[in-house]
Design goal:
The complex is a heterodimer. Chain A is α/β, with parallel strands linked by helices. Chain A is built from 22 helices and 28 strands. Chain A has a seven-stranded mixed β-sheet with strand order 7-6-5-3-4-8-9, with helices on both faces. A five-stranded mixed β-sheet of chain A has the order 12-13-14-15-16. In chain A, strands 17, 18, 19, 20 and 21 form a five-stranded antiparallel β-sheet that branches. In chain A, a hairpin with a 2-residue loop joins strand 1 and strand 2. The two termini of chain A are 41 Å apart. The radius of gyration of chain B is 19 Å and the shape is globular. By secondary structure, chain B is of the alpha/beta class. Classes of the chains: A alpha/beta, B alpha/beta. At the A-B interface, loops of A face helix 5 and helix 7 of B.
């Protein structure tokens, strides 16, 4: 599209486009937000790049960087790339052996280590990384008395760069111009859950393509603020942070310290945010806790207006119906009294693009933020191909991870593996041809596909439903696959479901489930309806409750192909109990014990019975044992599973 | 080295509380830029000695001079202006104030603006205020307590309070820093952090340090010289290695039978 086809070229272009005097970055230091202009960034990168070149950096050589989110990190990365090198990010909490592996494996010739802590780690492994010529640090604190010539300060490197610049003016610009789009820009070492991490090779073209495509649907402007707090060694920060910064001119703000992110977020109030699902959930919990500790007037406003927020958001986003005048007036009052102040406390007053990634996000969390006026969307991606899918605009569905990003093709393989193809698909794993061959496939038309190793499928609206890692799926007797994690996880998002265990496997024709109702929530629901009940066992066997849970199961079923749906379920007459060994103390299911213990019910479900008599031995807290006798009904969803799809 | 060039001279100091002889005839010197640890069993008189050095107690006999000034004859409110700062065994911070305000309170001795200037907050007073804040921010950065800058001290855990107290002592920009058990009640990680800060203070600011500490591992690691007290009497003085193998010290700590 244009000549700025590498990140360093983008920096030079940005300098001309936005002006040398314009603020490019900010960092809080000694309590004040210090500003760095585009011209300042340019100068820093120029000096560092020339410094590295005078130390002998050659095109294609690797340089490791280990440090927090600082302007220096971005400058170093751009300087390495300007000199034709590849930047290899390492997470700051890595142990010396982990660092040793990456430094050795990537053949790094220089390492940038932020501070004393990281320098000490490198000194500890020095004997094993003889290829490293210098270790350069940018935070000198505590390093004053280190006299080792292997260590070098940022300042000395810049001084070398200044000398080189006065001797050979124009060398920097010339070297940058020699860079090509297909040059490798970064290696991202994926945190392999099994075996050693693999170094994904990512080119400038990959990064810029991911950025340009995403910007089409999620635009950024040079007036936008962004807070850089995702680890810079991670692909996401390279695209959403650095590439977006260089391409669109959005201002990148760096937190004072990793511990101050929450506080700095409020000061900056960024326009774009990406949190993990867990972090969004934590924010909701934080608000709820703080409200209970707050003054009575705040608690009253919260109790009064949160339902208004939920009601209006429900009408707008879920029912998609017009909001009546009275609700609009109430909502406007709520905006002043509660929603705006809450957004302000969370630093969300200006956020235009709020994304969640990592794990499935609880719909209640999305509803909470919608009620206070922030629409959270989901994003699904990988190190190897950056952004795969995301929700665009108002087209948000709780159970999906959105539609393919522009320029991205998604294909579901026969074994339900998600394959993606786009300009952002990486160049393979460094020094690992086997892994590369199994991850990258070129089809008959010459398209390069990345096999994600994830399982999912597309729904009728073209949204991607992410199930789980492919290897976590289980197979049924007919050879079809289903995802226990997806079924159980999704069902547990329902307020009426406390625990679920699905049963299937190679000797079963379909999936069934043992469901524990949430006694508190289902009890309140029953009371509202005037439904009388005595005990947990009694409530769980009410036909109305079965109907309630059936609807929840159907809702999850609708998002799945017929074979992967839950066909039958029972509502257990008692809760899973850690005291009886049914759950671990962290509330994880003990599957073998449970399938043994509830064998009768499971057999009944597969045998086509309508109900099963249970005589269960119950251990009371005081040590006594009793026998409970009750009849548990089996609910079948066969008809619903096949024809019930409303769409 | 001639006597006058020595930093801190403790000469034949004796102190008694009624019939109890807390210190008897203790003498030792501290050179500029040195880290000296005072160790000894409970009740050996370590804190009493520190209290004498910063003028909190008046010794019965003997003299203590710091940079040529006689500490024993200086009134307590002027000790601070001799550039001696200290931290306490039980943190003595303003628990109702923020970390920032606690650190700023230590800048008091360096404040020059007069009442009228401060009232108008104009000219010199304004500039001075900013300069003090800059000094304090430097310390916040140094001790890595940015995230609690505005937190109320009373709400902080013990380990952080100790760090804030060190910060307040540093904010006085002392030439001699007395630390009374800076690591008590800390877990291993907090102790290691504290040890690193103490060494950094010493390296970067070249501050002379006198510290009392019970964790022998840490004392032996960071002190350059160790003074051992037992029942108010100095029983040994030397580099950590000598102290480790000194029979009198072993006896004082482990008892006669050992």
């Amino acid at each position: 599209m244009d000549t700025a086809d590498t990140l360093p070229k983008c920096l030079i272009a940005a300098c001309q486009k936005f002006g040398k005097q314009r603020v490019a970055m900010r960092q809080k230091d000694r309590g004040l937000w210090r500003e760095f202009t585009w011209g300042g960034s340019y100068e820093q990168v120029q000096q560092l790049a020339l410094g590295l070149m005078s130390l002998g950096l050659k095109r294609g050589e690797k340089v490791c960087i280990i440090g927090d989110n600082d302007p220096q990190y971005f400058w170093v990365q751009l300087a390495v790339q300007a000199g034709g090198g590849v930047a290899v990010g390492i997470f700051t909490d890595s142990t010396p052996p982990e660092i040793e592996y990456i430094v050795q494996h990537s053949d790094a010739v220089f390492v940038f280590a932020k501070d004393q802590e990281q320098c000490d780690k490198l000194l500890a492994i020095r004997a094993n990384v003889p290829a490293v010529r210098r270790v350069i640090y940018w935070d000198a604190k505590g390093l004053w008395n280190y006299s080792d010539a292997w260590l070098m300060s940022f300042k000395s490197l810049q001084t070398l760069g200044q000398q080189a610049n006065s001797e050979q003016p124009g060398l920097f610009e010339k070297t940058v111009a020699e860079g090509r789009a297909d040059d490798l820009a970064i290696f991202c070492y994926t945190s392999g859950t099994t075996g050693q991490p693999k170094g994904a090779m990512i080119s400038h073209h990959n990064l810029l393509a991911a950025c340009d495509h995403t910007v089409q649907i999620d635009p950024r402007f040079e007036t936008d603020e962004y807070l850089s707090f995702l680890p810079p060694a991670w692909i996401t920060e390279n695209v959403l942070g650095l590439a977006f910064h260089l391409r669109t001119g959005m201002v990148v703000n760096f937190p004072e310290a990793p511990e101050t992110v929450q506080e700095n977020l409020r000061e900056i109030t960024p326009h774009a945010l990406l949190f993990s699902a867990r972090l969004w959930e934590n924010l909701v919990a934080l608000v709820q806790v703080r409200i209970t500790e707050s003054s009575w007037i705040n608690r009253m406003l919260y109790r009064l207006f949160m339902p208004v927020g939920h009601k209006v958001a429900g009408l707008r986003f879920e029912a998609r119906r017009p909001v009546s005048l009275i609700w609009r007036v109430l909502h406007a009052l709520g905006e002043v009294a509660l929603f705006q102040p809450l957004r302000d406390k969370l630093g969300l007053t200006r956020v235009r693009s709020a994304y969640s990634s990592g794990a499935a996000l609880d719909p209640d969390v999305i509803r909470f933020f919608r009620a206070i006026g922030v629409s959270i969307k989901q994003l699904y991606g990988s190190t190897e191909a950056e952004v795969h899918t995301l929700h665009i605009g108002d087209d948000v569905k709780f159970e999906t991870v959105g539609v393919p990003a522009p320029g991205m093709s998604i294909k579901i393989a026969d074994d339900s593996e998600i394959w993606v193809s786009a300009a952002s698909v990486f160049h393979g794993y460094y020094k690992n041809p086997e892994a590369t061959a199994s991850a990258l496939v070129t089809d008959a038309e010459g398209r390069r596909w990345f096999r994600t190793g994830d399982a999912g499928h597309l729904d009728s609206d073209g949204h991607l439903i992410y199930l789980d890692r492919l290897k976590e799926l289980l197979e049924l007797a007919g050879g079809q696959k289903y995802s226990p994690q997806y079924l159980e996880g999704r069902l547990k998002f329902s307020p009426y479901v406390r625990d679920v265990m699905t049963i299937g496997g190679a000797d079963r024709a379909f999936v069934v489930a043992l469901i524990n109702i949430d006694f508190g929530n289902v009890g309140r629901w029953a009371e509202k309806r005037g439904l009388a009940y005595t005990t947990f066992a009694d409530l769980s066997q009410k036909p109305e409750v079965y109907e309630l849970i059936r609807k929840e199961v159907e809702q999850v079923n609708r998002t799945l192909p017929a074979a992967a749906r839950i066909r039958k379920f029972v509502l257990l007459h008692k809760e899973f109990d850690a005291d009886e060994g049914e759950l671990t103390r962290t509330r994880k299911l003990r599957r073998n014990l449970l399938s043994d213990r509830y064998r009768e019910m499971i057999t009944a479900m597969y045998g086509g019975k309508d109900a099963v008599q249970v005589r269960a031995l119950v251990k009371y807290r005081d040590g006594r044992e009793g026998i409970m006798e009750t009849s548990v009904r089996v609910a079948a969803l066969e008809s619903a599973a096949v024809e019930g799809d409303r769409r | 080295m001639p006597e006058t060039h020595r930093h801190l001279l403790v000469r034949n100091v004796s102190l008694s509380f009624g019939g109890l002889q807390a210190l008897s005839d203790v003498s030792f010197d501290v050179n500029p830029g040195e880290i000296v640890a005072i160790i000894g069993p409970n009740g050996a008189g370590k804190t009493s000695l520190l209290n004498c050095i910063n003028g909190f107690y008046r010794p019965d006999k003997g003299s203590i001079t710091f940079e040529g000034h006689e500490v024993t004859r200086t009134p307590p409110h002027q000790i601070a202006s001799l550039s001696i700062a200290r931290t306490f065994q039980n943190t003595a911070l303003y628990t109702g104030l923020s970390v920032l305000d606690n650190l700023l309170s230590a800048r008091h001795i360096h404040m020059r603006a007069n009442f009228l200037q401060c009232l108008l907050y104009w000219g010199a007073a304004h500039r001075e205020d900013m300069a003090h804040r800059a000094v304090v921010e430097e310390i916040i950065d140094f001790l890595e307590i940015e995230h609690i800058r505005k937190a109320i001290v009373g709400a902080l855990p013990h380990g952080l309070r100790k760090r804030v107290e060190l910060g307040r002592a540093l904010a006085m920009e002392p030439r001699l820093l007395l630390l009374d058990e800076p690591m008590t009640g800390m877990n291993q990680e907090e102790k290691e952090d504290m040890a690193r800060f103490i060494l950094d203070v010493h390296e970067q600011r070249n501050t002379t340090l006198v510290l009392i500490e019970h964790d022998m591992g840490l004392v032996m690691d960071i002190a350059q010289r160790v003074v051992v007290l037992d029942f108010g009497v100095k029983i040994a003085e030397g580099i950590p290695d000598e102290i480790r193998h000194n029979d009198d010290v072993i006896k004082a700590y482990l008892g006669e039978a050992a």
